[in-house]
Amino acid sequence: MGSDRRISRFDNYISKVTKRGQRNNGSASVSSTENSSSLAELTLHYDNTFNEKHKLEVLAGYTYQEFIDKGFNALSQNFPTDAFLSNNLAAGDQTTYDLGSFKTRNQLLSYLGRINYTYDSKYLLTASFRVDGSSRFGADEKYGYFPSLALSWRLSNEKFISDLDIFSDLKIRGSYGLTGNQSIGNYNSLVLLGTTGNATFNGSEFVGIAPIQLANPDLKWESTEQLDIGLDFGFLNNRITGSMDYYKKKTSDLLLFLPIPSTSGFTGSLQNVGDTENSGFEFSVESRNLTGDFKWTTNLNFSTLQNKVTNLGDLPFILQGGIRFISDFTILKEGESINAYYGYNTAGVFQSQAEVDGSAQPNAALGDLKFVDENGDGEINPDDRVVLGDPFPNFNIGLSNTFSYKGFNLSLFFDGSFGNELLNFSRIDSENPISPLRNRQDYVLNRWTPDNPTNENPSFINNNLARAVNDRTVEDATFVRLKNLTFGYDFPNLAIKGINNFSLYTTVQNVFLITDYSGYNPEVSSLGGSNLKVDYNAYPISRTFTLGVRVGL
Amino acid sequence: MKTIKLLYTVSLVALLTLTACSDLLEETTYSSLGPTNFYSSAEDAESLLNGVYANSQGYRDLLRDYLTLGEMTTDMLIERGGGINANTQPIEDFEFPSGHPYFQFLWDRSYSAIFKANVTIENVPTIDMDEERRAIIVAEARFLRALNYYQLYERFGPVPLITTSQTSAVDRPSRPSKEEMVSFLIADFREAASTLPIAQEQFGRATKGAAIGFLAKLYLNEKQWQNAADAAQEVINGGTYDLFTQAERFKLFDISNEGDNEFLFVIPYPNNPDRNSGNTYLSHAAPPGYNFQYPPKVNFAAQFKTRSGFLDLFEDDDQRLGSFIFQYQNMAGETVQLGEDDVRSFKYLEDPNGLGDYSGNDFPLLRYSDILLTRAEALNELQGPNPESIALINQVRNAAGVSPVSVGAFSGMDDLRDFVFDERGREFFTEALRRQDLIRQGTFIALAQERGHPAQDFQVLFPIPQSEIDKNANLAQNPGY
Fold first, then answer.
1. Residue A22 sits at the chain B interface (C-beta within 8 Å)
2. Which one-letter DSSP state was computed for residue B431?
């Protein structure tokens, strides 16, 4: 049994002397939330070894968890003085009071069983089965069933391998299993009614109530099926060690807030829609190249990633994304990567009136961008949007080398990402500023003019926000970076009592970056951890120089 | 010993499981309502209806959106500066990109209101409450549904007709024919009018006059002249409405005259507006450094300006000119003249209770002067210049303090038609009716071309929002887009 409780309180006061506070003559708010969870867990554990070679471990269990979230918030404005801060909300003007409170609850219930079996430290088997129930799903869809099986074989413990005298370690692994995902909000399967704005009659407001979401009684677990095959190895007395892995992961019944036609009364609904597939190969090796006075160790990681949508039900595609005046800039579509960038291809700049007249943009001015009429219907419209790339690298590499000689040591760490694209919003802002007074990037200086008939940049006279997501703003974000360089010296055999070791070192982070990407940082994701990746006014990564002294007592 | 322990635990697990498993995962709601504990009382019925009104009435930037689509496409209004220029300029320039956020927003909002109206129409009849009020609630919801469809139709042409609240995520409705759309609207306005009262206790609610008035406007836009003239006459005969003549004409839009019986239906804003419920028009219209009468107010970088050519339509003694700011004293005390295409419409006079960028001025959707001019226009289309049309026009002109006109002054039907549209311009600027009027007059596209925009005939309709097209394979885009 266990219980967790977290209480947080947020106080805010906007003083009358600030521009914002002046408007409301002081504004105070307090909000508090309380998140609690209780857990009941019953497990049974059994392990035993038979005949010295059969090792068996069995686990069976039952868990039940309940989560309750509660909150309260209050706002008050128009204070006689700044003195109270948020400690006397009643001192504000009663007509400005704004109150809110909420409570939600969800529950999880699981039955689980697991068996570990090892024979002679050579064959290992783990089998498990879980039944997970979540209150968040439809009445008949609460439970998901998630089995898994893992096998491994330590070949290096077999006589026929050890006799070869090549491998110091060798192991084959394989696993297959299902896991479930229920990380959605509560009550998504139900029809809910809630307050939906106020009506105004006779100059006063009256609360309106209406259904606030479409019911989805079929809402169920999202599940992921994963197959993993791997090999661990070591040669030459473990001078060279490493592993290789191949995985394939198929996620079905994705929990997605699906945009739906607004004619339904709603713009979206949480649905189990479609499947995605991720597969990849991972390889890592560590090699102690030199082990004498001069030591050299190399670590290499290499991984590939393939990611695509394999099924979207009956939907041809789903468009997502929205930042400021730009929306629907990524696409989910069968056969494409998740949230691939979606927009227009460009083909240089209009140089002559004859070129304009013969084009799909008869109203364009000289110096405007020429767009590609992908479907050849003689006009440029949203049907001409195509996939312009995706944020997933084809492969990543990490390489570190460490050298040491006597007390000196040097290490370098490179990483690189290849074949990924990134949507550069800073470039969109620069090419299509919402006001002519906005800052622009320096390449705008090399713009098209009658005297500078370049094909590289348009005249930037006419904004085209509707087509701002194009092959100019979706950029190749392939890069190689020397991420870390450290050089140091360890003073040997210090004769100072009480100090065991003493070293000096210097480290440079972000030493250099090789990329064609025009923004500051090709690795950035301004929208956080989601797979909808953009560079939106991201802060550049700094280059840091560190000089250090390390003393061990 | 081990076996005994095992059995013991297994039976404990089984016990818990048996007692609990179905109830333990049941969802309980605390802060929201479900259909089982709602749809039951008179209060619930009123709350449902309030929800329909909430979606059909005002929001912060309603005037910005309505005027951008309804007037920046015409000879009246331009917008310069500010972040919103990225959205207003493509409309002024007749680009009409199908991904434009205002199209999407207005589309979503109307269909949300229609959904809520359908919920009300379906669920209120079974609630046990006062029968008369129950019937009126349903009629109000029906009126609001028709009004939202009327606005959608006016902007986008025929749109999917959803008349049930049993919608689902997989529905892919298609568009009706123009005839189906129009007869649906006529039937809904008529049915609502048959139950709605002549007057409501609370200003802002739907009345019989509003339903018949919008029906008259629908007929007029459809060029069903006799029906338009008859429906307008029905409103006139009701005797509920008259023109505001209690003070100078432009003061009709002062906050103190809200609720005047010239208004058949308005988008009401509350007496004590706040950041969510007020309207932001004035912050868009005020010229730089404008010294507001009731500070503190916010003045946006965006500038809504009146075209000088439009102002030439007014005679000097027209009281309606009182709505415009031709010159002003700025905060530094200097007098600033507003020149070519720079005069501001302050039709909705400063609200003393408005604070920052929000004020409580109502936005009229239908006024009695529109009913009078509707009948005048329809009769001219049927008979050419005639004494009744002239008398109706003169009622409006008298109220505005300008001299009456006579039948003899018009050479024929075309001449009087042009005059009616000029009079409508003088009467309804900043009320977002100009686009609809010019389309009816047949000059909408030609005037845009005269202003140098690449307007084409299909642009009398806006494009269906692109994301709706993307989400619904059965929804056809308007031709040309």
1. yes
2. T
From the list A196, A261, A325, the residue facing B472 with the nearest CB is A261
What span, in angstroms and rounded, lies between the C-alpha atoms of A413 and A399?
6
Strand partners, A32: A9, A72
Give the nearest chain A residue to B469 (CA atoms). Answer: A261
Q: Burial code of A230-264, b = ≥16 C-beta within 10 A, e = fewer?
A: bbbbbbeeeebbbbebebebbbbbbbbbbbbbbbb
CB contacts of B85 in chain A (<8 Å) are 434-435
- Count the Cβ atoms, other than its own, within 10 Å of residue B385: 21
Mapped onto helix, strand or coil, the DSSP state of residue B38 is coil
pLDDT score of A192? 87
Beta carbons of A257 and A219 less than 8 angstroms apart: no
Q: Which residues of A touch B50 (CB under 8 A)?
A: 198-199, 206-209
B114 touches chain A (CB under 8 A): yes
φ and ψ of A94, to 5 deg: -55, -35
Q: Give yes or no for A135 touching B (CB within 8 A).
A: yes
Which of A106, A142, A200 is opposite residue B269, by nearest beta carbon?
A: A200
Residues of B in contact with A27 (CB under 8 A): none
Residue B260 near chain A (CB below 8 Å): no
Locate the chain A residue with the closest alpha carbon to B455.
Answer: A363
Closest residue in B to A271 (Cα) is B169
> Using 50, 70 and 90 to split pLDDT, how confident is the model at B6?
very low
Residues above pLDDT 70, as percent of chain A: 99
Which DSSP category does A155 fall into? G
A101 touches chain B (CB under 8 A): yes
pLDDT at res. B213:
98
The distance of Cα B86 from the centroid of its chain, to the nearest Å, equals: 23
Mean per-residue pLDDT, B121-143: 97
DSSP conformation letters of B264-330: EEEE---SS--TTTSB-HHHHHSPTTB--SS-SB---S-EEEE-HHHHTTS-TT-GGGGGEESEEEB
Cα(A483)–Cα(A543) distance, integer angstroms = 9
pLDDT beyond 80 at B191? yes
- Rg (C-alpha) for chain A, rounded Å, is 31
CB contacts under 8 A, B 261-290 vs A, are 268-272, 274, 277
Q: Does A209 touch chain B (CB under 8 A)?
A: yes
Residue A462: pLDDT band with limits 50, 70, 90 = confident
Q: Which domains does chain B have, with CATH numbers?
A: 39-196 (1.25.40.390)
The pLDDT, as a whole number, for residue A529 is: 62
Taking Cα atoms as reference points, which of B153, B110, B173, B105 lies closest to residue B462? B153
CA distance B208 to B192: 7
Residues in chain B: 481
Going by C-beta distance under 8 Å and a sequence separation of 6 or more, which residues neighbour residue A381?
A: B98, B481
Q: Phi and psi of A534, rounded to 5°?
A: -140, 160
Q: How far is B172 from chain A (nearest CA, A)?
A: 7
Q: What is the pLDDT of residues B264-285, one digit of tens each?
A: 999 999 998 887 889 999 999 9
The pair of structure tokens assigned to B310 is: 């439009």
Residue count (chain A): 553
Question: Contact B115/A212 with Cβ under 8 angstroms?
Answer: no
Name the phi and psi angles at A155, rounded to 5.
-65, -30
pLDDT score recorded for residue B22: 58
**Cβ-Cβ contacts under 8 Å, B167 against chain A:** 214, 263-266
Question: Is there a contact between A207 and B47 if contact means CB atoms under 8 Å apart?
Answer: yes
B282/B295 Cα distance (integer angstroms): 12
Q: Which of A186, A203, A465 sits opposite B27 (nearest CB)?
A: A186
What is the value of pTM for the model shown? 0.82
